[in-house]
Amino acid sequence: MKAIFGYPKSLQSRTTHYCPGCTHGVIHRLVAESIDELGLRERTVAVAPVGCSVLAYNYFNCDSFEASHGRAPAVATGAKRCRPDLIVFTYQGDGDLASIGMAEIVHAANRGEKITVIFVNNAIYGMTGGQMAPTTLPGQVTSTSPFGRDTELAGWPIRVAELLATLRGKAYIARVAAHTPLLTIKAKAAIRRAFDLQRRDECFTFVEVLSTCPTNWGMTPNEATEWLERNMMPYYRLGVLKEPGDFVPYSVERG
Amino acid sequence: MAKVLMKGNEAIGEAAIRAGCRNFFGYPITPQSEVPEYLSRRFPEVGGTYVQAESEVAAINMLYGGAGVGKRVLTTSSSPGISLMSEGISYIAACELPVVLVNIVRGGPGLGGILPAQSDYHQATRGIGHGDFRLLVLAPASVQEAVNLIYEAFDLADRYRNPVLILGDGMIGQMMEPVEFPPMRPLDSLPEKPWAATGMKDRPQNVINSLYLNEHELNAHNFKLKAKYDQVAREQVRFETWRCDGDLDVLVVAFGTMARIVKTALADFNAAGGRGGVFRPITLWPYPHEQLRETARRAKKVLVIEMNTGQMIDDVRMALGPDREVGFFGRTGGVVPTPDDVLAAIGEVTGKGAAR
Ligand SMILES: Cc1ncc(C[n+]2csc(CCOP(=O)(O)OP(=O)(O)O)c2C)c(N)n1
Ligand code: SF4
To answer: Which pTM does this prediction carry?
Structure first.
């Protein structure tokens, strides 16, 4: 008998701690399948964030780091610069990456670090119990924006993929979602492409994945999926924002 | 090898290369910027990489990544920069990663000034980050000693799997002195690091991690670290005694470049018939408490001299107990005590002066 479906090699076979209906688990699987298909597992190093995916090293079946809050791109930079032969990826939430870790992600992208960043945007701080994130939508109720995010006081949600795409360097930047089968297939293609570009030593690679947090959104998994579709997708448009081929070199003459 | 005349900061960079370090991560700050400047020039010749981080916060986390994949890594900074690294240093100590840190101390608090100071003693030996951990802290008094200690620091870091901090002051970084460098360590002679995150082929997963959600596991982890610190304290206490034979009118306790100024002053004091010696701790942690207690037995007076308002004096008091009177003289903010200032302070505690 031939097994046609099972755990990817790059995932450990254990039950995760993620809530029912949370897309963190789906995204883990897409990352693991991509690593498997490209044959990279034995030289891959994962960098877990502080956030709900802090225990990602218990799920990814590869050598791993657990980084301090927001600093995963700096940790990945150190690892990759010291061992360029390794495949290094970070897996980060939106509080981790777009708030406390904004400097690290912008500068890692700007230096063109040849790493892969998987950015899980669920518009809220999941782990600490549902506080407002830099990605929380206008009017969205969270435990620290109980009357809905007021853009006069808290600013507008940051579109990180667009922001990074404005940087001059060579990069692959895409935004995907993983709450329907079709979108999941597309998300997988983007993640796999990111790892493949890293494998070929091409450029900085970044995939933002829109994700659900039914627990802190206060919804059932189905409601959460609908909410993501109706509210997040119009503000956070899916697609590829930057291809490495868009890059045009430029340099001043040596004085 | 012949001696070369070199600025302290550049010599620190070269010593790190000799020790097998090929990766530097840091952020510019006076008075240590010559280290990254030197390495960004020199690394291409030896196949190293220099990364100018966006901040000290990023730099220390790059060190975490580099040490975690098994490489010898270095950062150098000065006081405010070290404060920013605090969280990262705690993670590194918790994960038992070998890294070498250099603090070329400048006057504080706050933005302070850019001139030499020793005001980060407490930070280095007591409070460099949250949690229960220790750094090995080494304090050189000359450029040559800085070179020797940096070279050895990488071995100590690897042996104990612990961060090692070199605490210099602006004088160490900025002064030029003749130095002799140790030989270049062949990279293939560096110790194996089977615990590093280098990709898992035919071994179980390696995880560089400081998260212990179970309180008993975290308790056990802390006591494992404690046992290591106890071992370091047994094996690594270092100090220098200068003119400490026989009975003394005064024993001056000073570290780093301050101890050199004290020696100059004491040479005059002794020439004028006084009997004074210097006790200079080289490891600020572990501190040579017992050795100081022994040496101080033969001294009528004990005087601590520091370029701060009194920090190491806590360790001296701990060594000598509450019954022993300890004098103090200090200047801060970049005011470096002159040998005359030191002589005056010695005169005050001993009642003996020395003409200069
Ligand atoms: C320096 C520091 N500040 C704050 C925290 C507390 N903290 C832990 S997780 C988290 C937010 C995580 O949210 P996000 O990155 O959106 O990930 P999610 O949990 O939603 O997946 C915060 C603020 C911390 N661990 N460290
Ligand atoms: S709190 Fe939210 S992000 Fe965290 S596991 Fe639960 S659903 Fe997922």
So the answer is: 0.97
